[in-house]
Specification:
Number of helices: 14
Structural class: mainly alpha
Order of helices and strands: HHHHHHHHHHHHHH
Largest sheet: none
Distance between the termini: 52 Å
Strand content: under 5%
């Protein structure tokens, strides 16, 4: 099995070097896309790691884990305490365990998991009154730790209010105030096309229908990827219209 995996890995690397995409490599080799990605990322064959065997420390793990949680992180002291409990293994076993234990990140409870960047962005740019108590507490703690982030979120919400109020008179003061913040690059882009921004504030028109048609065209194109040419794509687009 290891030899077969090695052959497929080497074949995947060769196909990747020829410029083939991951999906096509996986199809040709009969492998999963994740496996191909791992091989390409490593750049060489990576054998499976064998599971660690049993250790003389295993039966004493509850004791040593309890001492570790109490704050005793010295391998020497732990080995001495284990020896008093009947442990017959060497100091090196305890030292290696302590080294691995120091490298382990503390387990997080489900409630302590960090939300995704997309979700945090939505919370920061939304009306704080519309957030749940837990979400609002999280954003308040985040803004307290990062004052610049708090300022950027307030500026973004102010810009959103300009768009909703259909009043372009506040645009110039907002641009001048935001230019001195971390949103300076965003402000530069707005000023390069300021007439269009002002028109977007006062006009009822939107490019939503255009974006919808573009998305529909891409969906049709992707559904027939690798199966036909432009002529069939044209017929399908016209038929759907």
């Amino acid at each position: 099995m290891s030899s077969r995996r090695r052959d497929r890995c080497e074949a995947a690397l060769c196909l990747h070097g020829e410029g083939l995409p991951t999906k096509e490599i996986a199809r040709r080799l009969g492998a999963s896309r994740n496996a191909v990605r791992r091989w390409v990322r490593a750049g060489r064959f990576m054998p499976y790691r064998s599971a660690p065997g049993s250790s003389l420390l295993d039966r004493h793990l509850p004791f040593v884990e309890a001492r570790w949680r109490e704050g005793q992180h010295s391998a020497t002291v732990l080995h001495r305490a284990l020896h008093a409990q009947g442990f017959i293994g060497s100091y090196d076993i305890v030292r290696r365990w302590a080294s691995r234990r120091r490298q382990d990140a503390p387990a997080r409870s489900p409630s302590a998991r960090v939300p995704s960047t997309r979700r945090i962005t939505r919370w920061l740019t939304a009306d704080p009154a519309a957030l749940s108590r837990e979400d609002r507490a999280f954003t308040e703690a985040l803004c307290s730790a990062a004052p610049k982030l708090k300022q950027a979120a307030e500026d973004i919400r102010a810009f959103a209010d300009l768009l909703r109020q259909n009043d372009p008179t506040g645009l110039t003061p907002w641009l001048e105030a935001a230019a001195a913040t971390d949103l300076g690059g965003f402000v530069t882009g707005l000023r390069q096309d300021e007439p269009a921004v002002r028109a977007a504030i006062v006009e009822p028109w939107s490019n939503g229908p255009v974006e919808g048609q573009v998305n529909r065209l891409k969906l049709i194109k992707r559904s027939m990827y690798g199966r036909a040419g432009f002529d069939l794509l044209r017929q399908r687009v016209l038929h759907a219209a």
